[in-house]
UniProtKB/TrEMBL annotation:
Keywords per UniProt: DNA-binding, Transcription, Transcription regulation
UniProt domain HTH luxR-type: residue ranges: 195-260
Cross-referenced Pfam families: GerE
Organism name: Pseudomonas cavernae
Name of the protein in question: LuxR family transcriptional regulator
UniProt xrefs under CDD domains: LuxR_C_like
InterPro entries: Sig_transdc_resp-reg_C-effctor, TF_LuxR_autoind-bd_dom_sf, Tscrpt_reg_LuxR_C, WH-like_DNA-bd_sf
GO molecular function annotations of the record: DNA binding
Length: 278
């Protein structure tokens, strides 16, 4: 970044922090970050305990918001590498999606039948620690028409971490003060549906394997995760498909999404049956 550009960028910080906290400042943050590099879409999800992900801010048009936010909140977030990183208490910082994705994520059904529908080519995100153990994830998304983030762009974005943290933390505190979330576990039914998926016919070990397959792990990766042989995993997969009456991993994802849709909290807009398996 040249001297003139640096001066313009730092002046932008002063303007940003002068904006009212909340949506206005989050929008200002997105515009400020665009001075560093091109970004197609921003979304800030807050992952808090047993609540469903909360979209605190986004820049999506209405049609794209349905896929990126509404459909995501129904249950696919349980397969999202960023969400799973938060459950492992990933430290704050700038992270690429591919750093957390399982070995077959980009060949798996979650990617091919859900994530790919978003039209995204790459996603990087700022992870921010929030009060009471919540995590904020500000995603910077690029469509397939845009190039991947370069090393220089990532280095410059990394310099913005402290500003991002301040803006996100203030926005979250304001939201909590103005609109506290109900104490009940809003996604308890969805989590239970995921954890109990196939329980009526599968063994506990087979359920473990199903969860890893849905998240994009290959048979070899499943074997490594569970300390069993790849051959044993293949036998389990064959038995799982037979017990569930399906013939492929695509059908497995479709069945999973249909069960999640049936478990959606009343009043929400569930994903249409089979929408991600077509």
């Amino acid at each position: 970044m040249r001297h003139k550009e640096l001066k313009h960028w730092t002046a932008g910080v002063a303007h940003l922090l002068a904006l009212p906290s909340g949506r206005a400042r989050l929008l200002g943050l997105s515009q400020w970050l665009k001075q560093i590099c091109h970004v197609d879409h921003f979304v800030l999800f807050v992952y808090e305990g047993n609540h469903r992900p909360l979209a605190l801010f986004d820049t999506f048009p209405a049609d794209k918001r349905k896929v990126y936010v509404d459909d995501y909140q129904v249950g696919p977030y349980l397969l999202d590498p960023f969400y799973l990183a938060c459950t492992r208490n990933q430290p704050p910082g700038l992270w690429r999606l591919r750093q957390f994705a399982p070995d077959h994520f980009y060949l798996g059904e979650y990617y091919l039948n859900y994530y790919q529908l978003t039209g995204l080519a790459e996603e990087v995100a700022f992870f921010v620690d929030l009060a009471d153990g919540a995590k904020g994830v500000l995603s910077l998304m690029r469509s397939t028409a845009s190039p991947t983030y370069s090393r220089d762009e990532l280095q410059l974005l990394d310099c913005a971490q402290q500003v991002v943290e301040e803006v996100v933390q203030e926005a979250w505190q304001q939201r909590r003060d103005q609109q506290p979330r109900p104490a009940q576990d809003l996604d308890h039914q969805i989590r239970a549906a995921f954890e109990q998926f196939g329980a009526h016919s599968l063994t506990a070990r087979e359920q473990e394997i199903v969860q890893l397959l849905l998240r994009g792990h290959s048979s070899a990766s499943v074997a490594e995760q569970l300390a069993i042989s790849p051959g044993t995993v293949k036998i389990h997969r064959k038995n799982i498909y037979a017990k569930l009456g399906i013939g492929s991993q695509a059908e497995l994802l479709g069945l999973f999404i249909r069960e999640l849709s049936g478990s959606a909290v009343e009043g929400e807009s569930p994903l249409p049956a089979g929408a991600l398996s077509q």
